[in-house]
Amino acid sequence: MKLDILAFGAHPDDVELGCSGTIAKEISLGKKVGIIDLTRGELGTRGSVEIRNSESAKAAEILGVSIRENLDMRDGFFVNDEAHQMKIIQMIRKYQPEIVLCNAVDDRHIDHGKGSKLVSDACFLSGLRQIKTEINGEAQEAWRPKVVYHYLQWKNLEPDFVVDMSEFIDVKMKTILAYSSQFYNPNTNEPESPISTENFLDSVKYRAQDLGRIIGAEYAEGFTVERYLAVNSLSDLL
């Protein structure tokens, strides 16, 4: 299956927190979108792998993505080396996306920055014909996405562009709340974590509101780029 957009996250819920409003908007416009999680978040303070698996499937259903896969890399300990790059390359060649979305280039969790660079490097390498891969016993063709964009996460990095996703803020919040083991729940006995507070959950919406305010919209999501953005005319920026 060829996808228009393939979103990578170091952990289940990274994509939902960072860019699910944008993904929901693109799906509404007829785009085919998929999600690849690098790890199962097994080192998370709350919940379990089994619970996270169920939650990520529920979030994917709410969002309406075409596929969701998990590469079973080691949470906290995966590295940017050939073996890990080859796993990403297989996914890029399998789904041939025009656009790849991935973690923030710098963030509080060490896996986010690592995952960002890993996916970015693999996107380049995936276009090299001399790198041979196969899947299900069949050779894959080289494929390089046109662009790689990095969604914002914990840190307040300056976005290079923002996407108005005002009509999809409710979908975004529903996909996040699908991870009930991870986020604010006053009735749980699970230990607290930096993302389980009520303030954190509110901050996701606050950031979207603030980015929206700057562009004259209700809600928006921010992204950074790896190369200059290009437009056909100045009116494209209106």
Structure description:
It is a single chain. This protein has helices spanning 14-28, 49-63, 82-95, 110-125, 169-177, 198-215; strands at 5-9, 33-39, 67-73, 99-102, 134-135, 138-139, 147-151, 161-164, 220-225. By secondary structure, it is α/β, with parallel strands linked by helices. A seven-stranded mixed sheet has the order 3-2-1-4-7-9-8, with helices on both faces. The protein has a two-stranded antiparallel sheet with strand order 5-6. α1 (14-28) runs antiparallel to α5. The longest helix has 18 residues, at 198-215.
Topology:
Layout lengths: L4 E5 L4 H15 L4 E7 L9 H15 L3 E7 L8 H14 L3 E4 L7 H16 L8 E2 L2 E2 L7 E5 L9 E4 L4 H9 L20 H18 L4 E6 L13
Parallel strand pairs: 1-2, 1-4, 2-3, 4-7
Antiparallel strand pairs: 5-6, 7-9, 8-9
Helix pairs in contact: 1-5, 2-5, 3-4
Sum this structure up briefly.
The chain is of the alpha/beta class. 37% of the residues lie in helices and 18% in strands.
Radius of gyration: 17 Å
> Helix amount, in percent?
25-40%
State the strand order across the main sheet.
3-2-1-4-7-9-8
Question: Helix/strand/pairing class, anyone?
Answer: alpha/beta
Strand content bin: 15-25%
Shape category: globular
- The H/E string reads EHEHEHEHEEEEHHE
Low-confidence stretches: none
Average pLDDT score: 96
**Largest sheet geometry:** 7 strands, mixed
Strand tally is: 9
Taking the alpha carbons of the first and last residues, their distance comes to 34 Å
Number of helices: 6
